[in-house]
Specification:
4-stranded antiparallel β-sheet; about 20% strand; about 300 residues; 2 domains; about 40% helix; Rossmann fold
Length: about 300
């Protein structure tokens, strides 16, 4: 189902990508790599540029400068509807399911870039269209079974628990058997049990594809990713293994800000001693929370 590749070993390469929205620089010379069969996490505070980077990679946004290459080929004028045939799939921050279609029909829509029947055969229901429809439905049922949600196949999205809706959205993205999967906050709204299942699922996908993951749940990111890239104000401020990122002072500063001196204590002759006697302030407490969270 997937097209031939120019250089599968090259993976995804982003080089010095810069995106402007009017006078605002949303991304400033961002570079990263995602190798085949690697899970890379993309983290940062709200507004850091994570979704903008996804949009630039997938053709929703045109960068002012920089390049995006996939499997050795530069992606210059690609659009979102080209992604399937490029071997790239993406999920959205929400679920993005069509309420008027069943779960099976929603998932089957993920095969649309690879359909061969022409419009006339689809409208008239000829053998070509019917045979392809059966094949796609069988594939959709298989993907639902892989994700453990087969029992919901004939239900409509609005009647599903949110965790099941998330799995259905993932199933739709997997229908084309992509070689690169972009996951935009897949754990949002999930229970702890669902997040643990999701982490295991993402790790298992490495056998078939590379994954670029945007996520705010740091325990999931640390447990799931091979490498992590940290954005802040549109710039890469840290990159490395989970252990290296956990120890990075730039990451702590990006999430928690720099400590601010207490002006009352600063002006007091005994300010230094008084500060030593005080309980840890908000920054110290938040830093401990960050350390506890990412170590989890």
């Amino acid at each position: 189902m997937a097209p031939a590749r120019a250089d599968a070993g090259a993976g995804l390469q982003v080089r010095e990508l810069t995106v402007h929205f009017g006078g605002l620089t949303a991304l400033d010379q961002v570079s990263l790599d995602v190798a085949p069969h690697e899970v890379v996490g993309l983290i940062g505070p709200n507004g850091a540029g994570k979704t903008t980077l996804f949009n630039a990679i997938t053709g929703f946004v045109r960068p002012a400068r920089g390049t995006v290459s996939w499997e050795g080929r530069p992606l210059r004028r690609h659009r979102a509807h080209h992604l399937g045939r490029l071997g790239i799939a993406r999920t959205l921050q929400g679920v993005g399911l069509w309420p008027g279609l069943t779960v099976l029909e929603n998932v089957a829509c993920g095969a649309q870039p690879f359909l061969h029947a022409d419009l006339l055969s689809a409208l008239t229901g000829t053998w070509r269209s019917s045979r392809e429809e059966r094949r796609v439905n069988e594939e959709a049922a298989s993907v639902l079974a892989e994700l453990g949600v087969s029992e919901w196949a004939d239900r409509f999205p609005g009647s599903l628990p949110y965790g099941v809706q998330k799995r259905v959205a993932l199933a739709r993205a997997l229908m084309g058997r992509p070689r690169l999967l972009l996951l935009d906050e897949p754990a949002s709204g999930l229970s702890i049990a669902d997040m643990e299942e999701l982490s295991g699922r993402i790790r298992s996908l490495r056998d078939e594809m590379a994954v670029l993951l945007v996520e705010h749940h740091m325990d999931l990111v640390m447990a799931t990713c091979d490498r992590i890239v940290v954005l802040n104000f549109g710039e890469v401020v840290a990159a490395g293994t989970p252990a290296e990122v956990r120890a990075s002072p730039e990451v702590t500063a990006a999430y928690l800000g720099e400590p601010v001196a207490d002006p009352v204590l600063a002006e007091s002759p005994a300010g230094s001693a008084a500060a030593d006697d005080r309980a840890p302030g908000p920054t110290a407490g938040a830093a401990k929370a960050w350390s506890d969270d990412v170590a989890g």
